[in-house]
């Protein structure tokens, strides 16, 4: 659990054994000066002026960016969801969610927000199908984007976005190419693009998706038909999820593609050419599909993925520390600096908040957190953060 540290002074200096400005810029025995809510100065040694708060020998670092969550599913944590394939898992998830009392869904979402903040997340990309989590986010200290998610065939002319309240802006999410009609995909993209906002979409997540898109048949086709979603006009089959979205004109620098488990080098290069952002959710992928995205291949072509935890219906925590530790264990050759970039600056770029979050550069938001690691060198510092090598409480600083 993280405790909250606040100062009412308009100017305060926060000191620690280490300051991680970004994964490649680390200051030993440093400080961060905050004035009127913004970082004014980052330096080394003993600063003069202002209230000085010494947090200890650990590290002050940027808040995490969790670029893909589903807070309205938090109430389903620990439920016995099916392990007999993705389609059955989705079917059971929908049934459980629809049977749950709205009060419990809201209570779970509020608890999820609390868990995000207490585990070091300051920015979030929240996906909401029911539309119930917007006010909960707005009333919290989190920043980021609330994505209203759509699927099926129907497009409403009333779909809108770009509502801004406190630190949250609203945008749109298309569920996935195997659940959403191409006309709706394009319309959602056009509305988001008109407002200069990211569109989020699940892509190449499951074998069911790939089989359906490449044949127009299979268990997923049956599942859609059972739920009254017609797909005869979707132009199937297609070569791949990424190529299909590219053909529809959905891929550009304001598109956030999520998962990409079943994507290859050709897909990666299409994403790179179109400056598309990629969000990966490794623990969720491992639980639901027993398969991970090709992180090494993505990095090799030049993609800069960000991270999400997905929902508590498929992972046991919303902690980005748990996500980075999982990645470090699964991909031991990936440098810890790269993993930290995925959890901070890459996510800030993807959610269009890089001017305020992602690093501790002057001018950015004066919200960060202290991690009580005990290390002797820079390399050990990064490894300790990524692998969650600390036992006492961290501290959010705002």
Any overview of this molecule?
The chain folds into 2 domains: 3-62 and 358-397, Urease, subunit C, domain 1, CATH 2.30.40.10; 64-350, TIM Barrel (Alpha-Beta Barrel). The chain is 33% helix and 24% strand. It contains 14 helices and 17 strands. The chain has helices at 86-99, 102-118, 134-138, 182-194, 207-215, 219-226, 241-247, 265-273, 282-289, 295-301, 320-330, 336-343, 345-350, 378-386; strands at residues 3-5, 11-22, 25-35, 38-44, 51-54, 59-62, 64-69, 121-128, 143-150, 164-165, 168-174, 199-203, 255-259, 277-280, 306-307, 368-371, 395-397. The strands form 2 sheets. Strands 7, 8, 9, 10, 11, 12, 13, 14 and 15 form a 9-stranded mixed beta sheet that branches. Strands 1, 2, 3, 4, 5, 6, 16 and 17 form an 8-stranded mixed beta sheet that branches. α3 (134-138) links the parallel β8 (121-128) and β9. The radius of gyration is 21 Å and the shape is globular. The two termini are 16 Å apart. Residues 1-8 have low confidence and may be disordered.
